[in-house]
Request: fold
Amino acid sequence: MTFRSRHLLGIEYLNPDEITSILDKADQYVELNRSNIKHSEVLSGLTQINMFFENSTRTQASFELAGKRLGADVMNMAMEASSLKKGETLIDTALTLNAMHPDLLVVRHPNSGAVNLLAEKVNCAVLNAGDGTHEHPTQALLDALTIRRAKGRLHRLSIAICGDILHSRVARSNILLLGKMENRIRLIGPKTLMPTGISDFGVEVFDDLREGLKDVDVVMMLRLQKERMDGGFVPSEREYYHRFGLDKNKLSYAKKDAIVMHPGPMNRGVEIDGTLADDINHSVIQEQVEMGVAVRMAAMELLINARHPKKSADTI
Reply:
């Protein structure tokens, strides 16, 4: 497999072969996770530290489960009560972590670039679990795996990413990944939630959901990130749902076999109709959650292989 990266900081640092390597390895872990014995010794004797400066139940749980299934010693640091709250700098925290000799460091941080800074100061592999509005690489990878398994390929598809593009690191990572894999990307949302200069990313931009969804293969809805908004980006949630919320009528403009995705957590009745979110004929939202564990297992094994080929020679 082609994978030489020493950290997983963002999709922008990966080439198509490395993306494919992660997805191919994750496919193997999907099968392991569906078996009766969901355990491997690939990371046996290694230490994984999870540092979440932002709350995220599903992402942290997914990384923790991934590490444990690979046999790693997993520690979750309580960042709400950490020394950073007492004035310690991020660099001092990195030096403290180095003294513990971890092998994998999983970090989520509210500031863009903070994870990259940590990666420069520690001696282990760093995985970005989301930093500010910058990137969320493992979310894009699990989305890619979900699409590939549902559609049988990950190229030359028409994919619509809909909603709060401006505040979404998930959107940014997906735009980068799907673009590298030669897909046609459409961004749909109110002009107030569309980043300046977004058309420079090689995407099509729409402010009408029905028009943007015409004949697409994949509909990826985004959470309305009200916690990152400091002004009137949308008139009201009711108006937002009327114009940009996905329901069966609006979905009918997409291809008949289009799949519906959402990174979660969902605001039902705001970004997506609850019934449609649970419709097994279109929705792959639960599959996204399942793929998340497999992708994170794959990423951790490949990072350890890139750093210590002999240490993780054992495979599933």
Observations:
- The CA atoms of residues 67 and 74 lie 6 Å apart.
- The mean pLDDT is 91.
- Strands lie at 47-52, 73-77, 104-109, 125-131, 158-162, 184-188, 204-206, 218-221, 259-261.
